[in-house]
């Protein structure tokens, strides 16, 4: 395999290469779509398991809605169709015939799901109504990038209807909090949470909440969003309920999604020159055991110990494999498993068997002194658990420090704008709220990533009038 | 809600009604597609959990392949395209433009996956190569029936490549055995396993194995299949590997799928006049607790006990809900939960609280004497577990008896053919192997469901020549 491109010099190429070399993804014959290979898909499965549990805890139930949506449905919500029309894939023929009405392959399911809600919701007793689906969606992508921008991607989409705006708003915030929890606690990616400006919000939303990450190249990445839709879709699809007071009302809806894009964020946030680095909580493989064989005479004993350790760790609930391939040297194996970002390597050789010990090697290299440690096999469960725990914490802390190092306070666009090439990052500034000022950021290829809760800056970054709100400005993926 | 149609007189209408009334499914605005509602989807999730584990135990890894397949790919395997062409949905426009090459929405993924295999498989060391995906597929359906025949359905599709025919054959058989295990042990549906005749096998397969169920109306239902594809796809997509002996060879492939159709089979197999009956192992809700309140004075104590029992059973790993709706009478609740087929109802009233007991009511009515039992709350975990276990066994045994009662040995088509209207069922007969004899069954709207391993009959059901193999003949869904 070819050496990975320099991560500091050519971050974009490094990203493109590492995901292929590590076996996470492959190109498909259809432009813009990708094959998520087993090592990439296992991360998605781990994410699904934790996120699905959290979603169910909110009282949301899973369901499944059709892939195809009548084209006329999209058109019922004016802003929605305006936003999605350029990205639609359209089925015009099926069953050997031209269809009377073309069918759109869902780019998101608001229109289908809120149509169904109109059949199901009749009374305040039916509210809140909360469903979620795990599904594939299609948005035609002119400049595809694996995981980050793909014509087809996987996600969950939650859709809810509520009697009041406050409840729908709480739901959207709760979803964003759950996403932040998964991102920070599992993927070890720190995020800035806020609200999208009107020009960046979801097509059809009243308000879009967002979690924004900062990648090592200083570009922001929108990780996931949740929306308060108000009555845009519930009016268009005629959802009505009889309230406690007997009046017929229109519910307030929310929707929220978490996608395979987060796998791309994971790769970028933690990877290094040797390859991927997987946070232990989400790693498909948490530790790989590699037998160190020199003389044939040692083989049986070493392999026996390797098997014993593997069984023990597996029974303790850790995801462990043993690499017993006899056609490869230990060095070649080290290289492969570092490329895949397995957090811990366990080496067992004849001397280790003698001493009933093993060597634990930490994939993360920032603290060389702690990189290798000898541990007793009798206590290896606890040793590995402790090391995995530490790695998880350290990855998050390192990522947080990197974010902080690239998070700047600034005042005037004319000052920070020109710096954004050399000192790329997030700039917290004041904003008057005028879309014209926001549009001026195009000159620096930057955008408002989100509006913040706190207010530190008194004047707008552009017009110098009074600021209404602090915002985060950055170049973005 | 309207009364369910008579299950004995109008089985088809009963089926159509019960799945809607029980909240499993709803019609969608796109013909042939359906919404799987939470109560239906929960069954699929339970099936996924057990089946996914079994699939992984075979060394198969999950991955995800694109929804869209270039139209030219389908055409690479002549029989495959011939079989699927009439059912394809085709995307002709995307991203606001007409596509140069139309894209087919996958009806199954052999062509995409084996194309990818040709990029991944190089050496005998890569074999066997085993992947599986959980996905939606689309086959345009002119006569849709919820769960049983739908334009879009959910499934898993496993695809494997092997160095030898024997290995691929073993894999296909192993998949069929896993399916049979899930069907019989979880869904409590007995099946007859066998091989499809050439005219009924999968388009592009060398050999198709099948599990066939028999529904209460005497019609057979193909539950799921597995295929030995030989080199049909591996040749078409140019998959090559260097074998141990240095020679370049073409691998033998297998594929196998299990779909949401099995939920329809579950409904038909166990349902009764009162509604669904859920086998406990797969039931979304295994028991529902209903407080029996008469005087307001009892309320607090009864509800406290209901909550206590719910907590205790939930902690013991059982799926239990309490129905505390105060706008409904206990009788109305009994009706609703019987309709949903929850295997056990737990009633707790003031007298039960006094005696520290609860009433367990078995949803399955065949043995009235055992329908109701009083159990001590102190031992309710064990009592409920035992009852759920018994119900699971009894459902399977009952279904098996019904199958046996409609499984006939027969000799000549002219004898059993005319009987198939009044005595619908499976007929085991001898067959010479000639497709012409098979075609004669059309006169009775019957087909060969599968070829069996055993041979009891000496002459062909049609031509009376020597029989090559015993087959099962039935009308089918």
DSSP strand tally of chain A:
23
Q: Separation of termini of chain A?
A: 28 Å
The biggest beta sheet of chain A reads: 7 strands, mixed
Mean pLDDT across all amino acids of chain A:
96
Low-pLDDT residue intervals, each spanning 5 or more residues of chain A: none
Summarize the structure.
2 copies of one chain form a homodimer. By secondary structure, the first copy, chain A, is of the alpha+beta class.
Notes on the protein architecture:
Chain A is 34% helix and 26% strand. Chain A is α+β, with helices and mostly antiparallel strands and 477 residues long. The first copy, chain A, folds into three domains: 11-270, Bira Bifunctional Protein, Domain 2 (BirA Bifunctional Protein, domain 2); 287-390, Anticodon-binding domain (Rossmann fold); 407-474, C-terminal domain of ProRS (Translation Initiation Factor IF3, 2-Layer Sandwich). In chain A, strands 3-7-8-14-11-10-9 form a seven-stranded mixed beta sheet, sandwiched between helices. In chain A, β10 (207-214) and β11 (220-230) form a beta hairpin. In chain A, α2 (38-57) packs antiparallel against α6 (165-186). The longest helix of chain A is centred in the C-terminal third of the chain and has 26 residues, at 380-405. Chain A is globular and about 85 Å long. Chains A and B meet through β2, α2, β3, β4 and β5 of A and β2, α2, β3, β4 and β5 of B. β5 of chain A pairs antiparallel with β5 of chain B, so a sheet runs across the interface.
